[in-house]
Design goal:
Two copies of one chain form a homodimer. By secondary structure, chain A is an alpha/beta fold. Chain A has two domains: about 40-255, P-loop containing nucleotide triphosphate hydrolases (Rossmann fold, 3-Layer(aba) Sandwich), CATH 3.40.50.300; about 270-315, no CATH class. In chain A, about 55% of the residues lie in helices and about 15% in strands. Chain A has 13 helices and seven strands. The first copy, chain A, has helices spanning about 1-10, 10-25, 25-35, 55-70, 90-100, 115-135, 150-155, 170-175, 195-215, 235-255, 255-285, 285-300, 305-315; strands at about 45-50, 75-80, 105-110, 140-145, 160-165, 185-190, 225-230. In chain A, β5 (about 160-165), α8 (about 170-175) and β6 form a beta-alpha-beta unit. In chain A, α6 (about 115-135) packs across α11 (about 255-285). Chain A is globular. The interface between A and B is large, with 78 and 79 residues.
Chain lengths: ~325, ~325
């Protein structure tokens, strides 16, 4: 495929087109992914998540600038699972484009939910492969919001940064929503605001708790550092870059890189198989039969589980 | 099944046990759901979602108190999709229990993610059925956080309330994360705080925008009201109860109740079928074959989509 040749030379239009092909999720997408897949596996993928209003986008922009100063190329994928109907991330995107555009060493793409959450997680994982094959060395995957969606998307990352900020209402709730369990690095952004110290302290306490209670912690030898930043002024961002580097080194030396990679691939394979099976089933099932079972469920003559069993019986 | 007989009389232990059985997702769960399903379809289900720190739990508690004054029974299901590893919602739960416990007309249950998000959405939908069959008239489903997870869970509700609060960082982001598109009713809670008016105004603007741009709005004849509350002092909560009643009447009179019910059942049936197919596949697939394909993917000899195709080919 010619487009793959263009991609491997870093052609920006090829990258953009391939990600669109992936989002459309047709046969062409699978062909393209098969062709580019041997060229993946070189990038370090950094997930950035946290509650709304913590300043994630600003932080990612500033991190990208530091990497560019060090002559590393940067890909940014901004995922917005919060806006399933009208698409999203547009406002932040425009601000970002103005700030970083014109640098050929940076590629930015936003992705919004289309239909299912599983679909978004798969499309994000595939967009990472495209940027990886195109030669981007550090790839940020930024998610708006904090929930299981972000956990699923974070699974594609080598290093996950959870961003907190002081003054976001109830501290414990905000931190809980920051899904502390998946953090490799914490950032307390907007650290010039009142309450930054108590946010950092609350995180320390959570880490102490986790350390004493989680016997089966995923990475017992890595204690997530807590970095304070004022991303708007670039303050403290260098220290976050160092922390990412240290975490990458830890992953390589501890053997956890291989373990994470295997878990990631297993999860991805399971998700693809489930999606393929379901699609093939719903393409073949007779609409009339499906509709008549839905009618029976609505009339309370049949429960959904029994209806599902009937449909599956007929299929085999 | 004896437990179903106990459930239908409103026995609290039977309810609790049935929800646990559902969470464990075995054959017993499907048998129980089949038995109780004919007794469902009477409750009005109200979803309550919004960003962390908006005071959702307090609002739901106060709403429950108003319904109890009007002698309607209330079920509360608190869903926490943000804490996939350690379970969650415990703190809020204890405060709530202290406040509402002792009233036999209220049943409270919290549910946390175990494994997949789809699993949580299914378990929540089934827990609603249990409370519905047990005779609870109004059922609140409260989700912590705001994201696609909440959208999926909200699909089980007849009326969805999106809670905002002033001063949660960047207003537009906070509101976006409040997933305005799914709101039937907006609540600006903590309305005694600075910025409450501008939050309400921002919501008005979003509604005006939606009204002019969304030609295919799901409910063109229903404009979501914006209620201001100080839930901590019970202020404005009565107006929210009125709004819920008006929305329920609108759904019945417009025929949208049937449309939503059909969509809900279709989605539920699809989700159950997908889950059953995947489970049956992964129970039967040879572990050695799966592992060797994972190895090939990690070595970049094979891409995940081709590997999935091979596994599925062997299965048919």
């Amino acid at each position: 495929m010619e487009i793959i040749q263009c991609l491997l030379t870093g052609d920006r239009r090829a990258i953009a087109r391939l990600i669109t092909i992936i989002e459309n999720d047709g046969a062409e997408a699978q062909e393209a992914l098969a062709a580019l897949y041997p060229h993946t596996g070189r990038a370090h993928v950094v997930g950035v998540t946290g509650a709304p209003g913590t300043g994630k986008s600003t932080l990612v922009n500033e991190l990208a600038k530091v990497y560019r100063q060090r002559e590393r190329t940067v890909g940014i994928i901004a995922v917005d699972p919060t806006s399933p109907f009208s698409g999203g991330a547009l406002l932040g995107d425009r601000i970002r484009m103005r700030d970083l555009s014109g640098d050929p060493g940076i590629f930015i793409r936003s992705m919004a939910t289309r239909g299912s959450l599983g679909g978004l997680a798969r499309a994000t994982a595939d967009a990472i492969k495209v940027l990886d094959a195109a030669g981007y060395q550090t790839i940020f995957v930024e998610t708006v919001g904090a929930g299981q969606a972000e956990v699923d998307i974070a699974k594609a990352a080598h290093t996950t940064i959870v961003v907190e900020a002081p003054g976001l209402g109830d501290d414990i709730q905000a931190i809980k929503a920051g899904i502390t369990e998946i953090a490799d690095i914490f950032v307390v952004n907007k650290a010039d605001r009142e309450g930054a110290d108590s946010t950092a302290l609350a995180l320390q306490m959570i880490l102490d708790l986790n350390h004493s209670s989680h016997i089966s912690s995923p990475d017992p030898r890595w204690r997530p550092p807590i970095c304070k930043t004022v991303a708007l002024h670039g303050e403290g961002v260098g220290a976050v870059v160092e922390a990412i580097g240290e975490h990458a080194a830890y992953l390589r030396e501890s053997g956890n890189l291989q373990r994470r990679e295997r878990e990631r691939v297993e999860g991805e394979l399971r998700s693809i198989i489930t999606h393929k099976m379901a699609r093939s089933f719903f393409e073949r099932v007779a609409e009339a039969q499906f509709d008549s079972l839905v009618d029976s469920i609505i009339r309370r003559e049949l429960d959904p589980y029994s209806a599902a069993a009937r449909l599956l019986e007929g299929w085999r």
